[in-house]
Design a protein that fits this description.
Strand content: under 5%
Oligomer: single chain
Largest sheet: none
Number of strands: 0
Number of domains: 1
Distance between the termini: 28 Å
């Protein structure tokens, strides 16, 4: 069985495809076949956790200073991750609000509802990103190297949320537009996926082996 497109794109970015560009096309399959050994369950858990952390961090970034501190204490002790949440307002909310004409009470209402909905969406991580056991073909392994475009990652994840009963009613059109704005959700999931897989010893060995052989 093939990997879902949004997971394939995320893994391509996490694997840091430029590392593998030194390999000839005929070598890509053998390199990844020898070193990429994450199971479907490991990948599913990593993606579910990354998704939940991403939405929690976005919610934290949307919150007031006092609520932001409370959110971040709940989800992480990492200064790097706190800095990620600290960019939400300046890089995403303010330009999005200007584009949509949101200000004053309307902006406050959107912000508060988005916080609630992001938290609710994060709570349903166990129902999402189900991956069956798989065996990647040569073409699919090569795609992990060549498919480096992540601009549509937010749209792919949002489409998945809209296809799952537990989350489709929580994803309002304004929230979906915000999460897709400047690929916010995609960047957030990818950020936390890096963090999640970095703690996986076998995945770390995979990256080390790829760098050494490259």
């Amino acid at each position: 069985m093939s990997l879902p497109k949004f997971i394939q794109k995320s893994l391509s970015a996490v694997l840091n495809s430029p590392i593998l560009q030194a390999f000839g096309a005929g070598d890509v399959y053998n390199v990844l076949k020898d070193h990429f050994d994450l199971t479907a369950q490991e990948m599913m858990r990593a993606y579910q956790n990354s998704y939940a952390y991403a939405l929690s961090a976005i919610a934290a970034g949307l919150a007031s200073e006092e609520r932001w501190q409370a959110f971040m204490q709940q989800i992480t002790d990492s200064q790097v991750e706190r800095e990620f949440s600290g960019q939400i307002v300046g890089l995403y909310l303010e330009p999005f609000a200007e584009q949509q004409g949101l200000q004053g009470a309307a902006l406050d209402e959107f912000r508060n509802q988005a916080i609630k909905d992001c938290q609710a969406l994060a709570d349903h991580k166990a129902a999402l990103f189900q991956i069956a056991e798989f065996e990647l073909t040569e073409a699919e392994l090569a795609a992990l190297v060549n498919d480096t475009e992540i601009a549509t990652l937010s749209e792919l994840v949002l489409a998945h949320l809209q296809s799952v009963t537990q989350t489709q009613d929580l994803l309002s059109e304004p929230l979906a537009q915000f999460l897709a704005y400047r690929n916010l959700l995609g960047h957030a999931v990818l950020f936390f996926l890096h963090e999640e897989l970095r703690d996986n010893e076998r995945f770390a060995r995979t990256l080390t082996a790829l760098r050494q052989e490259g």
